[in-house]
From TrEMBL:
<feature type="region of interest" description="Disordered">
    <location>
        <begin position="298"/>
        <end position="347"/>
    </location>
</feature>
<feature type="domain" description="Septum formation-related">
    <location>
        <begin position="69"/>
        <end position="285"/>
    </location>
</feature>
<protein>
    <submittedName>
        <fullName>Septum formation family protein</fullName>
    </submittedName>
</protein>
<dbReference type="Pfam" id="PF13845">
    <property type="entry name" value="Septum_form"/>
</dbReference>
<feature type="compositionally biased region" description="Basic and acidic residues">
    <location>
        <begin position="312"/>
        <end position="331"/>
    </location>
</feature>
<feature type="transmembrane region" description="Helical">
    <location>
        <begin position="20"/>
        <end position="42"/>
    </location>
</feature>
<keyword id="KW-1133">Transmembrane helix</keyword>
<dbReference type="InterPro" id="IPR026004">
    <property type="entry name" value="Septum_form"/>
</dbReference>
<keyword id="KW-0472">Membrane</keyword>
<keyword id="KW-0812">Transmembrane</keyword>
């Protein structure tokens, strides 16, 4: 037998079995380790839902601890996904003050109803918002008093802080986005030219696509202060000047269309003294129509802009009575407002 054979003797069966068992054991450990590694690296749907819920809770907690000057936004109707954003971004609410009502509502107090919340908003938040603005709040302007209050669960847990602030509510009740700090905002309740406002119960609703039925189309934006430099102009003086100015503007907007032939009328806003004192000097020129019985506004479809496609064939008919009120809104959307508009035939 050679020396090489003696140096490398054959492996005995028992040794071979132990080697195989060790190999199987090590393979199992490697497989288990890989399984752990892969399970750590894969996020399940449940993990994503839990992470989103935790993020929402954190964002809501941050929002409800935001100091004055903070801006908030949300997408859910109950504001359950409220979060803090920079005021230069689109937002729905700007915090103007934080009020603690725990003295009036101790730990076991019942959650206030809707009417009580409205009263508390005005009583507790009104002055803090006015102080925050450092100028009058236009009672007929686009900014209105709002409050973020504890929900039922937060109330049960003892939360009693109200976050008072400013928001914009359209005539139909829908919150509108704001951009920029409220202190820098012109409070005039106006819309950009090209905006159409929905028809709601024969009066004005929220912004809507002009292809849909609407009450008014905004055709122009005018600054009264550029013409009336000596102070607040009387409603009569506003009417007289806007009749001419809005007629000029609608002519440019429509390319010289004859509104009367289309069953349409030209209208405009007027400003109250309180609005003027708050710096609200902008007004809209707008086009709409009235029902034949003069009971309200009629539905209009399509834009009158010279850039827009032709409107549908069925045109509303114009009545003879004065334009109904309803397009100007103050803090209370149900509060009846004084007259604040005018109209002409638009050519």
């Amino acid at each position: 037998m050679s020396d090489e054979a003696n140096r490398f003797p054959p492996i005995k069966p028992a040794v071979r079995t132990r080697v195989l068992m060790v190999g199987v054991f090590l393979g199992a450990i490697v497989a288990m380790s890989l399984s752990w590694v892969f399970s750590w690296g894969v996020e399940t749907e449940a993990d994503r839902v839990e992470a989103a819920q935790e993020a929402a809770v954190t964002a809501r907690r941050e929002a409800f601890s935001s100091p004055p000057g903070s801006c908030l936004t949300w997408t859910n109707t109950d504001a359950s996904d409220v979060k803090k954003v920079g005021c230069a971004q689109d937002h729905l609410f700007e915090v103007a003050g934080v009020v603690d009502i725990s003295k009036d509502f101790p730990k076991n107090a019942r959650l206030p109803n809707a009417d009580k919340w409205r009263t508390l908003t005005e009583e507790k938040c009104g002055q803090s918002v006015r102080d925050y603005l450092d100028k009058p709040l236009d009672p007929f302007g686009k900014l209105s008093l709002g409050v973020l209050r504890p929900d039922e669960q937060q109330w049960a847990q003892g939360e009693r802080k109200l976050h008072c602030g400013l928001q914009r509510v359209a005539p139909g009740g829908e919150l509108q986005t704001l951009t920029g700090p409220a202190k820098e905002e012109n409070q005039s309740n106006v819309w950009e030219p090209g905006t159409c406002l929905a028809l709601a119960n024969k009066t004005v609703g929220d912004p809507i696509d002009c292809a849909e039925e609407h009450s008014y189309e905004i055709v122009g934006l005018v600054n009264l202060a550029n013409h009336f430099e000596d102070g607040y102009p009387s409603p009569e003086d506003q009417q007289k000047w806007l009749d001419t100015e809005c007629s000029r503007i609608v002519g440019e907007y429509t390319g010289g269309a004859k509104l009367r032939d289309k069953g349409l009328l030209l209208a405009w806003d007027l400003r109250e003294k309180e609005s003027w004192d708050a710096g609200s000097t902008l007004v809209n020129c707008k086009v709409g129509a009235k029902l034949e019985d003069n009971s309200g506004l009629a539905a209009v479809r399509g834009s009158v802009s010279k850039e827009a496609p032709p409107p549908p064939e069925d045109k509303p008919k114009q009545g003879d009575a004065e334009q109904p009120e309803g397009e100007r809104r103050g803090q209370d959307q149900n509060q009846e407002q004084p007259p604040g508009s005018g109209e002409g035939d638009g050519g």
